[in-house]
Specification:
The protein is α+β, with helices and mostly antiparallel strands. It folds into two domains: 194 residues, no CATH class; 94 residues. The protein is built from nine helices and six strands, in the order βββαβββαααααααα. The strands form two sheets. The chain has a four-stranded mixed beta sheet. It has a two-stranded antiparallel sheet with strand order 1-2. It starts with a strand and ends in a 5-residue tail after the last helix.
């Protein structure tokens, strides 16, 4: 029987009932030379149960309202008995109103994941203090997922969760692993992902997240012209950010999730809209400028 364990202010969540997330977890370990890899299967189960059974908000979620997300760990180094290093791919998906389609909110690779995990050891975490590297990592991304999702349904609706993710960064500042500090190399990390979203300069990017999904994608099934117009307005919001912070980390994270979707959306647009949006996308996401030419095909 699962239970909540509270010890010295450390909270370990193993609740039976699902909460906010339907999180699918995979742990890959091809790079690790180990005869018995059962520990990675155990880690996979532990992370999945932690993410899906922890109560992250005070809001009530029905089972079919849970946020769809995927965590893919690629463990590249394992130092027995408990230290693991590798990468973590996080993807968040959001249902589009009136359709069976899920729009990707974030598709991000964290390339500096390092934590300690002993097989069958509970994943421990507390909101107010640093407890463990793995608990900090998972709670940080739980709040980032909630922030992206809530921002897509209401204007700046994820503010509380961006602040909670920032607190997770502050708590983990003592962790020696890369990704938690402003001066870590590379600088595109957890610290800056959250720091930028809370910076007023990036407010139009959060507005774009709302306008793109709630006023754009959610009306596309019944009013496609209106939906595309709202998406262009969202891209123009991102242009405001790009003028002040060219090629910013957060804008690149946004486009990592949206490139293919934008191509599919605007293939059905008018010639004038196609010309306009290809110019905007080439400016905001120059790495994929050649891909955006598919809009004209």
């Amino acid at each position: 029987m699962y239970r909540i364990i509270i010890l010295l202010g450390i909270i370990t969540f193993n609740q039976l009932n699902a909460q906010e997330f339907n999180c699918r977890v995979s742990v890959l370990s091809q790079a690790v030379q180990l005869s018995d890899k059962k520990i990675f299967t155990t880690l996979e189960t532990a992370v999945r149960e932690f993410m899906n059974s922890t109560r992250w908000t005070n809001d009530q979620f029905k089972r079919d309202e849970r946020i769809e997300c995927t965590f893919t760990f690629n463990i590249q180094k394992y130092t027995q008995p408990d230290e693991m290093e590798g990468t973590l791919q996080i993807q968040i998906r959001r249902p589009v109103f009136g359709t069976n389609y899920n729009s990707v909110l974030m598709n991000y690779m964290d390339e500096n994941v390092k934590f300690k995990y002993l097989e069958f050891q509970p994943i421990e975490w507390a909101d107010a203090a640093y407890v463990s590297g793995l608990g900090s990592l998972l709670s940080y991304y739980a709040y980032v997922i909630l922030a992206f999702d809530y921002d897509s349904y209401s204007l700046e609706g994820g503010s509380n969760f961006w602040q909670k993710s920032q607190q997770a960064v502050i708590n983990a500042n003592q962790d020696a692993a890369k990704g938690w500090k402003s001066n870590d190399i590379p600088p595109r990390n957890r610290f800056w992902l959250t720091e930028n979203y809370l910076n007023p300069i990036f407010k139009p990017l959060r507005e774009a997240n709302y306008k793109y999904h709630r006023m754009g994608m959610d009306v596309m099934s019944t009013k496609p012209d209106q939906g595309r117009a709202a998406i262009i307005e969202a891209l123009q919001k991102i242009q405001q950010v790009n003028k002040q912070r060219p090629s910013s980390f957060n804008v690149q994270v946004w486009f990592n999730a949206k490139t293919d979707e934008l191509i599919n959306i605007f293939k059905q647009a008018s010639p004038a809209e196609k010309t306009q949006v290809i110019q905007i996308l080439g400016e905001l996401d120059p790495t994929n400028s050649s891909k955006y030419q598919k809009i004209n095909q």
